[in-house]
Design a protein that fits this description.
The chain is of the alpha+beta class and 140 residues long. It contains four helices and five strands.
């Protein structure tokens, strides 16, 4: 790993899942020093989806199940396209990738996510209403 607390790095990714529709290169904020290594993923159901400009693994996805994770903070104000990544995450559905992730009857706008993030620390009731609206299928 690298000591990158509060620093940005340029990410490059595979364009699928949470990265769907994003520019191939973007800056993301890191708050960690830990990193997975390619060798540790060899006999797993995980595939690498994103790397930093220095080749550090920044994202993994399960080969079959609709599960993925990133090793940076999409919600950070310094992360480019972070709200789009959060929107893509909310659009994930189904138990497997074959069941059709990134297609959904529900569309949550980046503006709606931004509003949610603004109230998280100061107003838990608004957050709960926002989440309830998402679950009920209300469009923003």
């Amino acid at each position: 790993g690298e000591i990158r607390h509060g620093k940005t790095s340029v990410m490059h990714h595979d364009g699928k899942g949470v990265f769907h529709g994003l520019p191939h290169l973007f800056k993301a904020t890191r708050y960690h020093s830990l990193a997975a290594e390619e060798a540790t993923l060899a006999n797993t159901d995980l595939v690498v989806t994103c790397y930093s400009e220095t080749g550090i693994i920044m994202g993994v996805r399960h080969k079959e199940k609709t599960m993925e994770g990133v090793q940076f903070h999409p919600e950070s104000i310094l992360t480019e396209h972070g709200l789009d990544m959060l929107n893509n995450f909310l659009l994930l559905q189904g138990g497997t990738w074959q069941e059709g992730s990134n297609t959904s009857l529900l569309h949550v706008s980046a503006e709606g996510i931004h509003r949610c993030l603004q109230v998280v620390d100061s107003n838990q009731d608004a957050l709960h209403r926002f989440v309830d609206d998402i679950r009920s299928g209300m469009r923003d």
